[in-house]
Design brief:
Two copies of one chain form a homodimer. Chain A is an all-alpha fold and 197 residues long. Chain A has two domains: 10-72, Arc Repressor Mutant, subunit A (Orthogonal Bundle); 73-197, no CATH class. Helix content of chain A is 64%, strand content 0%. Chain A has helices at residues 12-30, 37-44, 49-55, 58-72, 81-94, 98-102, 110-135, 140-157, 164-168, 171-180. Chain A is globular, with a radius of gyration of 20 Å. The N and C termini of chain A lie far apart (75 Å). Chains A and B meet through helix 7, helix 8, helix 9 and helix 10 of A and helix 7, helix 8, helix 9 and helix 10 of B. The first copy, chain A, binds a DNA duplex (30 and 30 nucleotides) through residues 1, 3, 8-12, 15, 36-38, 46-53, 57-58. Chains A, B: Residues 13-73 form the HTH tetR-type domain. Chains A, B: Residues 36-55 bind DNA. Chains A, B: Keywords: DNA-binding. Chains A, B: It comes from Streptomyces poriferorum.
DNA sequence: AGGTGAAGTCATCGGTTGATGACATCGTCC
DNA sequence: GGACGATGTCATCAACCGATGACTTCACCT
């Protein structure tokens, strides 16, 4: 018969998948450096040496996990209510996602660093940039990077153990707060809030 | 004679000081984990094993460096123009300071984590909190943590290599941008910018 | 049924880290 | 000047890391 039986004792595709999932979780929770291939193997219930076989190295597994997450795409223009909500929900469920950690501290590994930087721009900075360009906002790229960086700080701060209330706060409340300030719709034209003329 | 000659070949106080300075710099540049005691010794021009003698361990040296920086106190209420400027200047000169890194990712070492968390609150969150309380802002503690976290994202993002324009931007421009949004004076009372009635 | 290659296991390598204790050297004080 | 404590140097340890290659075990096909 075909090799698709789910209970197979030996199943390369399944092992590969489990490694990828475990890696994605752990990289998100602890970051790249603090995650060991032995940790990944343990969580996946798979021998860690298979990482080398199926992905080549820890770095390449990281990049693969990054690309696998790209499909789920919980990122986009943060000014859309639904997107912003998704970003918070996802961060709550999955921990602080490798993507965000690079926004805040470079990785030692050059390949991993560059792959993450690229993904961060595609999925977070670029949508913001396009919106600012569309709206004719001043300094659109700088502003997109600024908003992305600030939002990263908030998302990561919720899981850092350094901010108690921020961690406990309801995502909806946070979104309301952010929308009134950082994500204020008319930023760039009104340096301060004032009466529209 | 007394033991205060500056050119002494053996001088515990001087070695201690050099270790402390080098540690402060490196912890700021690379964070706690990625800084090795050998790195610190090399930069200080002092044998790394003296760290154990003078401070007890890498962790205790980290905590000592944290407290030594507290004296310089470039932190405070971010709504004061001068303070905000200082924060940016300092981050540009010294790199992203250990304090900020904990706002974004917990440390493995529990003692180091807690010491940093406490310092972060004292020097960044608490001044903001007091201001919000003074102004009668809604949810002052949450709001202080939110602003601190967002600001941390911006400051760290400038050195992460992930945001080109943010890294290259003039601090003054950034402050202007932030003041119009995240640090908007009347946040908390006007969820959106609109005409005052 | 038996062979063959894929899938999984295991021992181990070289490198790095924080820490430790033995040792050498210098300065000071009697 | 000689002894003793402070200061600095060195070799080394145990733990952990990513990686590798040899080995075993299974599934499938003829």
């Amino acid at each position: 018969m075909s090799g698709e039986a789910p209970g197979r004792r030996r199943d390369a595709a399944r092992s590969r998948e489990r490694l990828l999932t475990a890696a994605s979780e752990l990289f998100g929770e602890r970051g790249f450096d603090r995650t060991t291939i032995r940790d990944i193997g343990r969580r996946a219930g798979v021998d860690p040496t298979l990482i080398a076989r199926y992905f080549g190295s820890k770095t390449l597994l990281y990049i693969a996990a990054l690309q696998a997450e790209a499909g789920e795409a919980a990122f986009a223009d943060l000014y859309e209510d639904e997107r912003l909500r998704e970003v918070f929900d996802r961060a709550d469920r999955r921990g602080p996602v490798p993507l965000l950690q690079v926004a805040v501290r470079p990785l030692d590994d050059p390949a991993a660093q560059e792959a993450t930087r690229a993904a961060l721009h595609t999925r977070l900075v670029e949508p913001l940039h396009e919106r600012f360009v569309r709206e004719g906002t001043d300094r659109p790229r700088l502003r997109a990077e600024l908003v992305a960086a600030a939002m990263t700080g908030v998302l990561l701060g919720r899981h850092s153990g350094a901010f108690d209330e921020l961690a406990a706060a309801d995502p909806g409340d946070l979104i309301d707060l952010l929308r009134g300030t950082l994500l204020s719709e008319d930023q760039g034209r009104h340096p301060r809030c004032r009466a529209p003329d």
